[in-house]
Task: structure prediction
Amino acid sequence: MNHQAMIQGVSSGAESPAPMILIENLHKSYGHNDVLKGINLAIAKGEVVTIIGPSGSGKSTLLSCINFLESYDEGRIVVDGAVIGYVEDGKGRRIRMPEKDLNALRQQIGIVFQQYNLFPHMTVLQNIIEAPIQVAGMSRAEAIAVARLQLDRVGLRNKENAYPSELSGGQQQRVAIARGLAMMPKLMLFDEVTSALDPELVGEVLGVMRDLAADGMTMMVVTHEMAFARDVGDRVVFMDDGRIVEEGPPDQLFYAPRKERTRAFLKRVLTPQSGL
Result:
């Protein structure tokens, strides 16, 4: 079922698979700069959606709004049936939801950024168990067990006592992914997680993300790695100027795009080195 059918099903009350992420008419501005201009998107549980487009098209802002790291001006974001960000008061006015409720929803959404944001004075293990203990209320023993499970998953169990400065960029990013997974999220958001890495380190991070996709994790991935977007995405979304220009299955979008703007973008970015 495509995303429009899912949106219609939610709106009409018709029986249909409830999307893990539902975004309706999302607008976001910074002053007079309109960054998101009416985004509509639905993502099914277990679906991997890769998002491509030129710099400044609103891709990263979209992810930040889903986790409500950025507030939005208009529209609605629903994650696994729960509206995130705003509630209505008794007079029908939209107000920011209480921070306690917001934090509970954020725990369900893992997000990994371009920068690793690891605490330099903590070991790998300490970095991973911090949020499960302080935010999720896990016991230390449980948090350590979960952390080691996720370190196994990203291939870094032998680095649990290392400090970030002792790791390569690719290893640090894999630790950041393990840290996000340790909160047992329902979905993962990835924002250009390989763009700060040396080319030879990109593959190890993408490999972890491929494994997550194969395991059925719901994922939104903003990326400039076109071969990854094609090979791992169940659906590819092309954004430009704050709007979704086109979306579709990878083969259709990359090899038979319908929109001239999509064709122009792909002509510019697809090179022999891109793997397509």
